[in-house]
Amino acid sequence: MAAYDMQKQDIAKRLARIEGQVRGVARMVDEGRYCVDILDQVAAITRALQQVSLGLLHDHLGHCVADAVNKGGPEAEEKLGEATSAIARLIRS
Amino acid sequence: MAAYDMQKQDIAKRLARIEGQVRGVARMVDEGRYCVDILDQVAAITRALQQVSLGLLHDHLGHCVADAVNKGGPEAEEKLGEATSAIARLIRS
Amino acid sequence: MAAYDMQKQDIAKRLARIEGQVRGVARMVDEGRYCVDILDQVAAITRALQQVSLGLLHDHLGHCVADAVNKGGPEAEEKLGEATSAIARLIRS
Amino acid sequence: MAAYDMQKQDIAKRLARIEGQVRGVARMVDEGRYCVDILDQVAAITRALQQVSLGLLHDHLGHCVADAVNKGGPEAEEKLGEATSAIARLIRS
What residues contact residue B10 under an 8 Å CB cut-off, 6+ apart? Predict the structure, then answer.
């Protein structure tokens, strides 16, 4: 579970690693590597980006959204709807 | 935003419609319809299922998770991690 | 690999099973079962639908698309572009 | 349709742009930007990576897979199954 509880520094490290993976894919394309191997590398980057998104979302749900729901009023539904819409965009991307 | 605020009855209606869509795809396969048209129907069912998931999730985040976070203690992180894991499975399915 | 080489009859069986799974989710909602358990059932249906899509696509690529590419001419690019667009919609659904 | 017919040079340009987008997200995290805005940027990168995958796949289906299918024999099914498995991994990533 703790996997989604990321510090800002951890997210920065993951993004730096993803940047290197993107450069790695560019190198594979340039070297004419086998297409299916490149596709699998791209899928690995997508999964790494999803982990970052889940870390950001975990933090957002635990602070911003839970606070708004706790306070109640129109902002509760607003923050909840906004978070659900963001999750919808993650699912479809 | 209100699109995710579903009543139990609304979810039941959506699921009944999805059941009909699945039967429709079975009919298309049986009739030998063009493959790409069948694929698009299956994609439409997947999107309809995602809407149901988002409705359930919206309710879960606004009640179960927000309550646990506001009470604090170990259950807060437990419910938050559980919800994030469920979102991760939705993203990957 | 053979997992994607489905007969029409196999696809029909899978769709009948999926129909039953959708009814199962409707029952879970009606009984007020725990939200995260319902979400996981919906994710299982999505994966089962994807297997059907992959079976249909495997057949389409091996017959319709490969034939068109073999014949060449404008229809080759047309069928290839159509298949890639269908895959794009699957990825985003 | 032509959107998926990418030259090696076009793919290289897209990957360079994606690398810049990843650096942009790192900057947003560092500056403490609003979580939902960062999530949308990550989703935009995922979509850009999918376009690259679809370009590579389009080329692979039109050359490697179509050639193998047209030659026939065991390699036809092998290449077709390999491509379908790669598409399955894209759908789930």
Answer: B55
ipTM of the shown complex = 0.92
Exposure string over C23-52, b if 16+ CB within 10 A, otherwise e = eebbebbeeeeebbebbbbbbbbbeebbbb
Task: Tell me whether residue C9 is exposed, middle or buried, using C-beta atoms within 10 angstroms of its C-beta: 0 to 12, 13 to 18, 19 or more.
Answer: exposed
Contacting C residues, span 64-93, partner chain A, CB-CB under 8 Å: 92-93
Q: How far apart are CA B91 and CA A4, in angstroms?
A: 14
Of C40, A79, A4, the closest CA to residue B62 belongs to: A79
Other CB atoms within a 10 A radius of the CB of residue C59 amount to: 19
User: B81, A5: Cβ pair inside 8 Å?
Assistant: yes
- The CA distance from D53 to D29, in Å, is 27
- Report CB contact under 8 Å: A54, B90: no
* pLDDT tens for each residue of D58-79: 999 999 999 999 899 899 989 9
What's the count of helices (H) and strands (E) in chain C, helices before strands? 4, 0
Return d(Cα B66, Cα A62) in angstroms, integer.
Answer: 8
What Rg do the C-alpha atoms of chain D give, in angstroms? Answer: 17
- pLDDT surpasses 50 at C1: no
Please state whether D5 falls in left (phi above 0), alpha (psi between -120 and 50) or beta: beta
pLDDT, averaged across chain B: 93
